[in-house]
Design goal:
The protein is of the alpha+beta class. Helices cover about 25% and strands about 35% of the residues. The protein contains three helices and eight strands; from the N terminus they run H-H-H-E-E-E-E-E-E-E-E. Keywords: Membrane, Transmembrane, Transmembrane helix.
Length: about 170
């Protein structure tokens, strides 16, 4: 009886680049790097520009500015009447301004500033008109829903006093 010798196949190991594990790890690293590059691009392309260019100079005199503001504070009571706001709908925003004795204060100029924290291009300002003694009103329509920061600036002589408030537009 003759034994037929079969061909013996020697299993040579696959090169590392053909292993499914190595391909999966390299693919994962490439995906992570591409996502990071996309995030950097989006951060630069959609920069809202909310950082002041002269932040250092403004910060150096911050404490002195606060002390001088406190010294000049006339003690007025400023109260804003802001109704629930919906995007695109015109609403009346009112400011009531009285002194320490409760008497109405006549300001030289009153302006409502609205800032969109997520997009500086949507910021706007509206002068408020005198509605009565110590009462001012502005008709405003906020264009987008979401968070808005408002600042009502009251000019009296060379001084300016302000009232700020964060609003939610489009929420019930």
């Amino acid at each position: 009886m003759q034994i037929q010798s079969g061909a013996v196949h020697s299993a040579q190991p696959l090169p590392a680049w053909r292993s499914p594990w190595v391909i999966a790890w390299v693919g994962l690293i490439v995906v992570v790097l591409l996502v990071n590059l996309l995030m950097v691009y989006l951060a630069v392309a959609t920069n809202p520009g909310l950082v002041n260019a002269d932040y250092y100079e403004r910060g150096q005199d911050y404490e002195r500015t606060l002390v001088s503001r406190r010294a000049r504070d006339p003690g007025w009571v400023m109260q804003a009447d802001i109704p629930p706001l919906q995007p695109g709908r015109v609403e009346a925003i009112r400011l009531f301004l009285v002194d320490r004795a409760g008497q109405p204060v006549e300001a030289d100029a009153v302006t409502l500033h609205a800032y969109r924290p997520a997009d500086a291009a949507r910021d706007f300002s509206v002068p408020m008109r005198r509605e009565g003694a110590g009462r001012y009103v502005a008709e405003v329509a906020f264009p987008l829903p979401g968070v808005w920061d408002t600042l009502i600036a009251v000019g009296h002589g060379e001084d300016e006093y302000s009232l700020d408030q964060r609003l939610e537009v489009g929420t019930r």
